[in-house]
């Protein structure tokens, strides 16, 4: 038996000039509006999501419109550029509905060929999310917990990302007529207290609700799977940005923190761990870029690329956040340092859209390495 | 720098001219290689007159591919890797014009094989502590000392040699770099047998070796700077072409997995998939590095690449033995042999496992590379140094 076939030519794995410009403008805005102390303060307020910043990001930098074609009101860029934005949002952990609205819902609508809601999401005037538990992975049956009876939708979907402030939820439903995907505006959300304080979750309950049919049959299944696949790819870039932030912050800290008359970064016990982390982040950057490029161009290697990126970047972000806490010592364990926010995001992201182990299980099938 | 199609066309025109004037089918191998060198098609990034045309390095790929298709001979790059990868860039950067002319052509054609006389029994990671002495004489230098871990010394005609010329100054300042004629009667090469059973390396004893001053590379006392230049090239060595998925050691493990359903257990499968993902990530990292270099923005990823490689190679070769089960208990041959080319993975499972243990030692130990990444890439403070301002002769050893 031979191994899996792989596309012969690699796409560019570098950040292009326009991506660097986009990165700079997003970072400027986030530095101004989402400094970590204000992000932390917001987590304990009545408005855990920062919709004003989201609308500014959408109108000033166009980040919600990147993968949407120009004729549909979008920017006509691609998921590559969205991935660069995801890196910056991972760095800042700004509580904006990027993952739910600009990634999951947008990808599902693009796949289904819906255009009306898509344009509204692209402009940032409305937000939406995909009603699946955030722990759902591409190809999983767990996305289909709502029952459709005719056009009446009933069921509860737990741990939905960005649901509380969403104007619309896209609901995958199953029923006698097969799978279907609905845009629903009447729904109840009960907020959950989430491990990742900067990414609120909610349980969405539908009691005979009606909605607009977006896709049915295989098209609905494909739309949900496409959304989860794109989501895992974008999340890998978010994890990359988060890992870079943790590494940069920790490196800066160990240069200035003195113990026993030396900067603690001069001890091999720390510097070797940071060098290893740098190596892991380097690998994460390469695979996150590859997954984003594959998703952007519908590459036949997409499924493998996303499984690899999701698996590697999840663990690298957790490692980076854990090392960040440990190497900051006592201050890293307090509420008064951002490390705990990064740790919570990293650990939640590791579970979101599939654990590394789930992605490796998918990969085993794709590359013909059966478990038994 | 990106090649324009015009550049490549005119380059391929030169290749065609070489092929027309020296048809590979009817031309002696060495004659062809010398002609290729003189046409500037040996390494196009080298200067004109020294086997190159001063073009971007990656344009060599087009030349090599065209020559391969025409059935042209090669200089067996695997068997002269130290000369090509380390000696040549050093001679180009630090040698004089006479030395470049005398050494580079036979180096490239493989007529003269080079080895590296750097490490000593007392100077491994701390190369600058080396003690092989070179003493000035009227017409040159007299060298005495011992070198070790010298790959291919038994095949070599020349060695790049670092010596101590001034023991009274701190260690980094008193060194001088030479090309050493391995056929000098004072050079004795003894095989150094390693854990695999074969002797890929050697010990080299230097007893009253005479080196003319015309074989000195760089200034007297400037040997550390030249040696550092050589070592940079050792770590920059990165493949020109994209590696295939499941290439190298991973391919051996996945083949064993697919061939042996009886070996499959959940625990081994978890290990296998974890390593598959890391190997694929390493492959894509290598590709990203290649793209950065092509775009003229070399990144610090190079230092990370070697760390990834040695770590993976060791883990994969260890897993392979477990997947092979009973067959992993066997070893094909412990006979003392002297290989003629360096093979980092080999085709045999037990050999691969043992040979991979060298990967985290050779070319800079993992610990030294982690220091380099931490200090040069991340900018972390250096170790506390107790030897920096002491004369070399007063250092504890």
Low-confidence stretches of chain A: 1-7
Largest interface: A-B, 47 and 50 residues
**Under the CATH scheme, which class of the largest domain in chain B?**
Mainly Alpha
Oligomer: heterodimer
- Number of E-state strands of chain B: 8
Q: Please give the radius of gyration of chain B in angstroms.
A: 23 Å
Determine Rg of chain A (CA atoms, Å).
20 Å
- How large is the share of residues in beta strands of chain A? 5-15%
CATH architecture assignment of the largest domain in chain B? Up-down Bundle
Structural class estimated from helices and strands of chain B: alpha+beta
Whole-number count of domains of chain A: 3
Q: Provide the residue-averaged pLDDT of chain B.
A: 91
- Helix content estimate of chain B: 40-55%
Count of the separate structural domains of chain B: 3
Structural notes for this entry:
The complex is a heterodimer of chains A (372) and B (397). Chain A has helices at 17-33, 36-43, 51-61, 79-92, 98-112, 116-123, 218-256, 268-297, 302-327, 339-351, 356-366; strands at 128-130, 146-149, 152-161, 168-174, 180-184, 188-192, 201-209, 212-216, 258-259, 262-263. Chain A has 372 residues and is α+β, with helices and mostly antiparallel strands. In chain A, helix 1 (17-33) runs antiparallel to helix 3, helix 5 (98-112) packs antiparallel against helix 7 (218-256) and helix 9 runs antiparallel to helix 11 (356-366). Chain A is globular, with a radius of gyration of 20 Å. Chain A starts with 16 loop residues before the first helix and ends in a 6-residue tail after the last helix. In chain B, 41% of the residues lie in helices and 13% in strands. Chain B is built from eleven helices and eight strands. Chain B has a four-stranded mixed sheet with strand order 1-4-5-8. A four-stranded antiparallel sheet of chain B has the order 2-3-7-6, with no helix packed on it. In chain B, helix 2 (29-38) runs antiparallel to helix 5 and helix 4 (81-94) crosses helix 6. Classes of the chains: A alpha+beta (372), B alpha+beta (397). The interface between A and B is large, with 47 and 50 residues.
